[in-house]
Design brief:
Strand content of chain B: 15-25%
Oligomer: heterodimer
Order of helices and strands of chain A: HHHHHHHHHHHHHH
Largest sheet of chain B: 5 strands, mixed
Helix content of chain A: over 70%
CATH class of the largest domain in chain B: Alpha Beta
CATH architecture of the largest domain in chain B: 3-Layer(aba) Sandwich
Number of strands of chain A: 0
Distance between the termini of chain A: 11 Å
CATH topology of the largest domain in chain B: D-Maltodextrin-Binding Protein, domain 2
Number of helices of chain B: 17
């Protein structure tokens, strides 16, 4: 198992390096730069080429690409992401607050999704082709069909019209004021968690159905084992494998992919920061964010692989 | 009878007195407002976005300001300068500064701070960026003859110099701090304004609290303010509707106004104004057949601006038919005169017939195709483009729209490949020098994307800029406008933007103006509860 873990950890290094090179090149290929985004988009009357040249020099954008790349890679080697080209603030400072919010939302949405998906998927599989199964399938298909931001808009409108109340607009950390924090984040967590659960529910149901048709389950039933015991001890562990993959990948996606939902609920998360960094052509911040999200994806995949190996011993002995 | 008359008189006087009492400012409360954009840095001299003005203007003062009660947003009003005089030749301006003004760190504000701030704006040292340096090309020197006098010496008399000092971006900084570090204000906030900074949480909000030592005694009325950064317009509307915010200072759409009014009734007050922002159609003079002024005139003649004003103002943030100045402002051309220009005629059939004639004369065939390049911003770029494409179709032109992502847009335009495309300008004050600079020859203004050279136009601009007589200046502006929009049709005007501010009726003391950069100091704003 240790050998397996070390191998997986070492594989992360070339993957991240590849991501770093790719995002650096891609950002330079996209037209426009941070100086143009800053001075050409506001419709001001007095455009000064001198000012743009000063700003480009200040940001090192007048340097050859290879020099910009080596300087960035040098910083990465020291775990220094550098300064945001847009704000001039350290990138770690820009990301810190947003990361906290995105992480909390991703955890909350994952909890909501897991609490919905696993029991519903099992029930639907066990009660296959009964009204319970149909109800679960309708519930999950509705979740798949409904974008979470749209559900979020509906939630906000319902709160506004029915209760004349709106969730807080400013993020308060959980340890500062748990009530205020939950009052803001529970709604997006429900909206996102519902869509997320829909995918996982369907996966859980089909995996469970497959496992329930296996010989060892039939044998367990034939020898008169209690159904609850068969499900929890024998079926669930094996049926969880694809569900864990879905949950893991969705979790990683939630860390940087909730752009529209963040806009709807005015959440100061990584998704919004990502979009702003790209639209401002903030090369350094975008590069750092891509690396962070890629690291989350890789780490979650790593954890998924470890969970696989734990759930299915054949994997670690391969 | 006498008693009855007496009671009626008392009742009448009470009724008359009531509105006055109701308008007496109330102290206390925190104003909450969404800001659709966040400042990249804190330096007003460097940045160009309202995202800096809305949350940061309350921390600063400028030398002069626009009268906060002037709906036109053009009248100069004392701020740190309490009075000023102009020499007979119009080249020397002396400003008397207020005494007893303190920065938030307790140090006294004097003329050396004003001089240092304006030197940074007009004559920035190497490596320091100033967005408004070009605007003060007329200034020869800034002097501080004594602690409470600032003198501006001009190269020539200018009709717009005072207006240029009304810029809300020209925060007065501490000379001592600037002497130590010219970039200090990019990352720090410390002014003389009515509010002091509590915190700025990046991506979230800026919090300000009342400055107890503010020089204008009795002000501000508010205890503080919270500027919340909300990018999504639907979330901004929801914030006002859910009474989580009092006001958004930039502007909402007609649909937003109507939905807020329908939902909140008297709890919402709506203020509207023509908006000193306009989308322009730039025509690349280096691309055939647009190098021919007959083709350019045909493009403007095809547009029914009057009908569009009625129709588009219901769905978009545009309204007035405008020339080079915001309608209703001191130098704007009156409608009856404006309607004589090509593209502004009230008889659209006659206008389109002329458009077709000019196209034929220029050898442009029926069904001629070209690409209209547009910026990927829905409001109001999209409805205006759809409208224009339809109008051009009606004179036999076949126009394809190409939409480019906002951040890449101007980089693409500056390459010079686009044929006909949307351009944009927004001003902090309605002033001909500012509003017309855009249209100078490309070698004088790199933001002229039409890529033309017109020395007659340049000459008219320079003359109006130096004209100190208002009537003479108006004549020169009319001549400039006629050449730009009619004779040469270098650029086309779409419709003037229309600013709609539906705000909580609790907000008092705030006056809408044509500029969303003005009236954000918040010193005169108060809340009824």
């Amino acid at each position: 198992m240790l050998h397996y873990i070390i191998k997986r950890l070492l594989l992360m290094i070339p993957t991240l390096l590849g991501v770093a090179v790719l995002i650096f090149v891609l950002m330079r290929v996209v037209p426009g730069d941070v100086v143009e985004a800053r001075y050409l988009t506001q419709g001001s009357q007095f455009l000064s080429q001198d000012l743009m040249n000063i700003e480009r020099k200040k940001l090192g954008l007048d340097q050859p690409i290879w020099k910009q790349f080596t300087s960035w890679m040098g910083g990465l080697a020291r775990l220094d992401f550098g300064l945001s080209m847009w704000t001039g603030a350290p990138i770690t400072e820009e990301i810190k607050l947003r990361f906290e919010l995105s992480l909390q939302l991703a955890i909350m949405a994952t909890v909501v999704a897991t609490l919905l998906a696993i029991p519903l998927g099992i029930i639907a599989a066990v009660k296959q082709d009964t009204w319970v199964d149909y109800a679960v399938r309708i519930f999950s298909i509705a979740g798949l069909a409904m974008p979470s931001f749209w559900l979020g808009i509906l939630m906000i409108l319902a709160m506004l019209i029915l209760f004349k109340w709106l969730p807080p607009m400013v993020y308060t950390p959980f340890w500062v004021n748990p009530w205020e924090n939950l009052a803001q984040l529970i709604w997006p967590a429900l909206a996102v968690g519902y869509r997320y659960s829909a995918v996982a529910t369907r996966m859980m149901r089909s995996a469970m159905l497959e496992v329930l048709r296996e010989d060892y389950i039939r044998t367990a039933r034939a020898k008169g084992l209690w159904l609850k015991l068969i499900l929890t001890r024998h079926a669930l562990k094996n049926a969880m494998l694809p569900v864990i993959t879905v949950i893991g990948l969705e979790f990683a996606f939630l860390m940087g992919g909730l752009v529209v939902t963040e806009q709807v609920f005015n959440l100061n998360g990584l998704g919004m920061l990502f979009v702003e960094a790209i639209s401002h052509r903030d090369y350094t911040l975008t590069q750092a964010l891509v690396l962070i999200v890629a690291s989350v994806f890789i780490f979650v995949n790593f954890l998924t692989d470890i969970a696989y190996a734990w759930l299915d011993p054949r994997i670690r002995y391969r | 009878m006498k008693r009855l008359m007496g009671i009626l008189a008392v009742a009448a006087s009470a009724l008359l007195a009531f509105p006055l009492q109701a308008q007496t400012p109330r102290y206390g409360g925190d104003l909450v407002f969404p800001v659709p954009s966040e400042p990249p840095s804190y330096d007003g001299h460097r940045e160009e976005t309202f995202g800096l003005i809305h949350p940061l203007a309350p921390f600063y003062n400028t030398l002069l300001r626009v009268d906060p009660n002037d709906p036109g947003g053009t009248k100069p009003y004392p701020s740190l300068a309490e009075s000023w005089t102009v020499s007979a030749d119009g080249r020397t301006y002396n400003f008397k500064l207020r005494r007893g003004v303190k920065f938030h760190d307790g140090s006294a504000m004097t003329s050396k701070d004003v001089k240092a701030s304006y030197d940074k704006i007009i004559f920035p040292p190497a490596g320091v960026g100033s967005s408004r340096k070009g605007q003060y090309a007329v200034v020869e020197a800034v002097e501080a003859p004594d602690a409470y006098t600032v003198r501006f010496k001009l190269k020539y008399a200018s009709g717009s110099f005072i207006a240029s000092l009304l810029s809300p971006y020209n925060f007065i900084y501490s000379a001592d701090i600037l002497a130590k570090d010219m970039h200090w204000y990019e990352k720090n906030i410390m002014g003389t304004g009515p509010f002091t900074l509590v915190e700025h949480v990046k991506g979230s909000h800026v919090l300000g609290k009342k400055n107890p030592d503010y020089w204008d005694k009795g002000k501000p009325y508010l205890d503080g303010f919270r500027a919340i950064f909300i990018r999504s317009s639907s979330a901004q509307v929801a914030a006002v509707r859910g009474e989580r915010a009092h006001i958004q200072f930039r502007g909402f759409t007609p649909a937003d106004r109507d939905s807020l009014k329908a939902a909140l009734g008297d709890k919402i007050t709506v203020q509207e104004s023509a908006w000193d922002c306009i989308l322009l159609v730039a025509i690349n003079h280096e691309k055939k057949p647009f190098d021919d002024k007959r083709v350019r005139r045909a493009l403007t003649l095809a547009l029914d601006r009057h009908q569009a004003s009625t129709a588009l103002s219901r769905i978009a943030i545009v309204k007035s038919v405008a020339g080079v100045q915001v309608p209703g402002t001191p130098f704007a051309t009156p409608p009856e005169e404006l309607n004589k220009l090509a593209g502004y005629w009230t008889d659209i059939d006659k206008s389109r017939a002329e458009s077709r004639r000019l196209l034929k004369e220029a050898g442009v065939p029926e069904g001629f195709s070209f690409t209209f390049t547009n910026r990927g911003i829905p409001m109001p770029y999209e409805p205006l483009a759809v409208w224009m494409i339809d109008q051009w179709r009606q004179v036999g032109l076949n126009v394809k729209q190409e939409v480019i992502e906002p951040a890449a847009y101007y980089g693409t335009i500056r390459k010079g490949d686009a044929q006909v495309f949307m351009d944009f300008q927004c001003g902090y004050i309605v002033e001909p020098d500012l509003d017309m600079y855009k249209f100078l020859s490309a070698d004088r203004n790199p933001a002229n994307y039409g890529r033309y050279t017109d020395r007659v136009l340049d000459d008219l601009y320079d003359k109006q800029s130096r004209a100190t007589n208002v009537e003479e200046r108006k004549k020169l502006i009319r001549a400039f406008e006629k050449r730009l929009l009619d004779e040469e049709a270098h650029y086309l005007m779409t419709l003037q933007w229309h600013r709609i501010i539906p705000h909580s009726s609790k907000v008092k003391g705030w006056q809408v103006t044509p500029s969303h950069y003005l009236n954000n100091t918040l010193d005169v704003v108060w809340l009824t509860q």
